[in-house]
Amino acid sequence: MVQNPKIVTLHPTLDCNHCRLHAICVAGNMTEEETKRLDEAIVHVNPLAQGEYLFHQGDRFESLYIIRSGSVKSFMTDADGIEQIVGFNFPGDLLGLDAIDEKYHTTSAVALQHSALCKLSWDDFNKLSQQCPHFHAQCLTSFSRELIHIHDMVMAMGQKGVEQKLAIFLLAISQRMKERGFSDKEFILSMSRSDIANFLGVAAETVSREFTQLQKEGVIQVDRRQVKIDCMDSLKSIAG
Amino acid sequence: MVQNPKIVTLHPTLDCNHCRLHAICVAGNMTEEETKRLDEAIVHVNPLAQGEYLFHQGDRFESLYIIRSGSVKSFMTDADGIEQIVGFNFPGDLLGLDAIDEKYHTTSAVALQHSALCKLSWDDFNKLSQQCPHFHAQCLTSFSRELIHIHDMVMAMGQKGVEQKLAIFLLAISQRMKERGFSDKEFILSMSRSDIANFLGVAAETVSREFTQLQKEGVIQVDRRQVKIDCMDSLKSIAG
DNA sequence: CGATTTGTTGACCGACGTCAACTACCGTGG
DNA sequence: CCACGGTAGTTGACGTCGGTCAACAAATCG
User: Which domains does chain A have, with CATH numbers?
Assistant: First the structure.
């Protein structure tokens, strides 16, 4: 499933100081002393294969996770078994925040591809955020960013047509690729059409149609999960 | 605009120890010493009239706010001037969290009725969360709860029909009323039909129609903003 | 009291969902 | 290596849910 190592894979490293996610991760912007403490608390769990769960909705809350490589989808399931993907997560992202309130996970997280993860127990997290001001600040930032992302998504879902939704989605992925040092013009989607459709609140067929539509308009080129953005400006103007 | 003081208004009190929001507020679950510190940091800003802004999208981030009485809507405006309400906020809710990352507000907050507020500067917030473990924990909880709320909303927007959306909305309001010690069966909506519509991502006329529909089905009684839930179970089964 | 805002209801229409057929790809085993 | 079945994605035909436009009613305000 790792379709293009050059683009998608980050080489896992052993400690936070040498991790190439430093700039994005909660572990960024910390003093050497703080980083050392974090390193001691972080556990490198076994990598997940595609389709494996990081945690299930309803699981007792024990730890937060940071993605080191790969990608993950977070989704919730309602009483009728209907699923809604609430986010796609990439290296550097902090997972499990939704479980803090109720002490059990309110979403499930499943690997979209082979993914490596860092685990940080809730106890250690609390100790660290008490003892390390920079870590505390970084966590709040991470939390805030999560809110912003989902607000953008709500805006898209509530007010935009399908073409706009898809443009917004592609731009969001593009942006995240860029932040992580990859091409923002050409990348491979790690999620299926139906994942995208579910995330955007539309039918999978509609996503298909809009992909080909955007291609016909010369804005992007698509071949299955490979995407190339030919005209970023057009895409942005469609996104509105 | 205060349509029914018995239901909507909370009497502002002077210090957190005697505030009746203790159970809900970030100020809850704290030691006496911690509460004292918080009290010193909290500023009781002038109450807002209906329609007044607490902050505007784009404003520099300086403070967080806690609602003491009344209610507030939070919304974002995109480049085209299209608005999307991302949440309704009630006494005890913490506002401004979305501004932590970028250091400016990414949403606007406007009072839906005469509302009293507590202000807590970002500096003081950081000091408090370093010095008061319980406050720190409460803030994270508050943050997490905010995420859960918006996840529920995304689920509704993405996967549900209009009748379901409205049922879910009413149940959410009902729940929040209950948490705050009011009737969960009978309450007054502080927001307009078009606010509800915008929040749910549908047309205002559609909200109107669904209200009358739910009334015809004998599930609720509606008279403008006054709502009475006659059959909570039916409402829940509609919400799915 | 008229003016304005807020909410309701009806008629019509279009964007998107559903159903179905088809194609391309992927992994497995012969 | 090919045969095969299963999954993912595309495309078309058709139906419908909810949006839009418009008229009206009710409440609020000056």
Answer: 16-153 (2.60.120.10), 158-239 (1.10.10.10)
Hey, how many other C-beta atoms are within 10 angstroms of the C-beta on B32?
8
- The predicted pLDDT at position A13 comes to 54
Which bases of strand D have any atom within 7 Å of the beta carbon of a protein residue?
8-13, 17-22, 27-29
pLDDT in tens, A174-217: 999 999 999 999 999 999 999 999 999 999 999 999 999 999 99
Across residues A85-110, what is the average pLDDT? Answer: 95
Q: Name which of B109, B228, B105 is nearest A144 in CA terms.
A: B105
- Assign B56 to helix, strand or coil: coil
Entry pTM:
0.91
Q: Check if the beta carbon of residue B107 is closer than 8 Å to that of residue B74.
A: yes
CA distance A141 to chain B (A): 5
Question: Where do we find the tokens 């293009």?
Answer: A4
Predicted local confidence at residue A1, as pLDDT:
36
A114: which residues sit within 8 A by CB, 6+ positions away? A1, A2, A47, A48, A49, A50, A69, A70
| Sheet-wide strand order for A220-223 | A186-188, A226-229, A220-223
Distance B208 CA to C12 C1' (A): 18
